[in-house]
Design goal:
Number of helices: 3
Radius of gyration: 37 Å
Helix content: 10-25%
Oligomer: single chain
Distance between the termini: 98 Å
Order of helices and strands: HEEEEEEEEEEEEEEEEEEEEHHEE
Number of strands: 22
Largest sheet: 6 strands, mixed
Shape: elongated
Strand content: 25-35%
Low-confidence stretches: 1-14, 281-319
Length: 319
């Protein structure tokens, strides 16, 4: 009865040299993975040394250095840990995995016999990918607007599916663990930079995805448009007024120059003062809305001064 039980123990009494690996593994950059592995060998042998090698640095059958792990080495890479033993388990733990870790790995062991050395074929394939945030929306193209429905998805280009993730908005974690965030009716408050990572592994953080929601009904949007039209009307009125006074003052160039300059300056100052008053009111009423125009609207009108054949222009900046 004792002999029958021992025959069922792998790696000790088997007469077959063998190493068994898992299927190819796809990982997220920055994560930690355990590579499952078991091995068997003849019962009259004793394992003295276990090794792991990668095909990018060690060609052939790992019969010589370099190794990514060597049980007889005084020190191995800090992100590698052999979690197996010297009887049947040859599992390897790799932490904070990166793109250079994408490779084929093989396990090799040596026994107390010169002929008792074995490398497991074909090895295990490790592939490292980045997490990415993608968007699908009810709007086929163009800018996302208030009221649209959309999904943000945290994904990795691997055959398996993500189960739990950690979402971030503008670098701060949000209470969302599902790989998909659903917005049934998006608002301007949903605008921001979104990223995701494996749960409890911030080292796997994806690149940020910028979500901008356009609010065309915002009072501030109407204010900017209205202010631009308001300023334009003042400029047109100023040009018309200057042209008329120019005609009346053809006989007195000095008077014409002074009058035109004072008129444009007064109109520009009045327009600027009214715009500032509107801005202050708008800031108090809509202080919670942040709109960053590309730059201050500038309008320039020019006054013409005739002095014989010479023409002089002065610019008045509005805003």
């Amino acid at each position: 009865m004792l002999r029958i039980i021992l025959l069922l123990l792998p790696g000790v009494l088997s007469s077959k040299w063998d190493v068994k690996y898992s299927d190819p593994i796809c990982l997220v950059r920055g994560s930690t993975v355990s590579i499952p592995c078991t091995f068997t060998y003849p019962q009259d042998k004793t394992v003295e040394q276990v090794l792991w090698c990668s095909m990018s640095t060690n060609s052939g059958k790992c019969e010589s250095e370099p190794y990514v792990y060597d049980s007889n080495a005084p020190k191995n890479a800090e992100n590698l840990q052999y979690t197996g033993d010297k009887t049947s388990n040859c599992s390897l733990l790799i932490s904070n995995i990166n793109f250079t870790s994408s490779d084929v790995y093989k396990f090799r062991f040596k026994t107390n016999s010169e002929t008792g050395r074995w490398t497991g074929e074909p090895g295990v394939q490790i592939e490292v990918k980045d997490l990415k945030v993608s968007m699908t929306s009810s709007r086929e193209n163009g800018t996302i607007k208030v009221g649209d429905s959309l999904n943000l998805t945290c994904r990795v280009n691997c055959s398996g599916k993500l189960t739990e993730v950690q979402w971030f908005k503008n670098g701060e974690p949000i209470h969302q663990s599902d790989p998909i965030i659903t917005f049934s009716s998006v608002t301007s408050q949903d605008s921001g930079n979104y990223s995701c990572s494996m749960r409890n592994f911030k080292t796997t953080l994806s690149e940020e995805f910028r979500l901008y929601v356009e609010d065309s009904s915002s009072p501030t949007t109407f204010f900017i448009i209205g202010l631009s039209l308001f300023s334009l009307l003042f400029i047109i009125a100023a040009v018309i007024l200057i042209t008329r006074r120019k005609t009346k003052n053809q006989g007195n160039p000095d008077e014409e120059d002074r009058t035109q300059t004072e008129t444009v300056t007064h109109i520009g100052h009045t327009s600027l003062q009214r715009a500032e008053d509107v801005l202050q009111d708008e800031e108090i009423q809509y202080g919670f809305i942040i709109i960053k125009p590309k730059g201050p609207a500038q309008e320039t009108t020019r006054t013409e001064h005739q002095n014989e054949d010479e023409t002089i222009y002065s610019a008045v900046t509005n805003g």
